[in-house]
Write a structure and sequence with these properties.
The protein is mainly beta. It is built from no helices and 13 strands. The chain has a domain of 85 residues: Immunoglobulins (Immunoglobulin-like), CATH 2.60.40. It is 0% helix and 50% strand. The strands form 4 sheets. Strands 6, 8, 9, 11, 12 and 13 form a 6-stranded mixed sheet that branches. The protein has a 3-stranded antiparallel sheet with strand order 5-7-10, with no helix packed on it. The protein has a two-stranded antiparallel sheet with strand order 1-4. This is FCRL2 protein.
């Protein structure tokens, strides 16, 4: 379901094949509510966030619950700097300065959920 599916619904059907009589049910109101994001988690490839110097690291953000549109942002060690948007963050050639804790935030406008930090180690 999406928020725009809210509305009034009814159904029609034949009551009799002989009389070809249509009947319509009473209308019911369906209201779809948004669900704030929760259960935000991070996955790393390679696993456990350990990557060799100059190798590629991909972090993925997953949301267990929440209705969209979802908006992702990536942050490093509490820095206010935005590292990226979208469900994935890719570091092509990791360097020593890429080690540290990464977080993913998901927002749906008025609600924000944040992942636990993932410790990345460049070996």
């Amino acid at each position: 379901l999406q928020l725009n599916h809210s509305g009034h619904y009814s159904c029609k059907g034949y009551v009799s094949h002989v009389l070809l009589q249509w009947k319509e049910s009473e209308k019911v109101t369906v209201t779809v509510h948004s669900v704030p994001p929760s259960g935000v988690s991070l996955l790393a490839q390679p696993s456990r966030g350990q990557v060799a110097l100059r190798d590629r690291l991909v972090l993925s953000c997953a949301v267990a619950m929440g209705t969209g549109p979802l908006s992702f942002s990536w942050h490093w060690e509490g820095s206010g700097a935005l590292l990226g948007t979208g469900p994935h963050l890719e570091l092509q050639h990791t360097g020593d300065k890429d080690s540290g804790q990464y977080r993913c935030r998901d927002s749906t406008g008025d609600s924000v959920a944040e992942s636990d930090p993932l410790n990345v180690t460049v070996l």
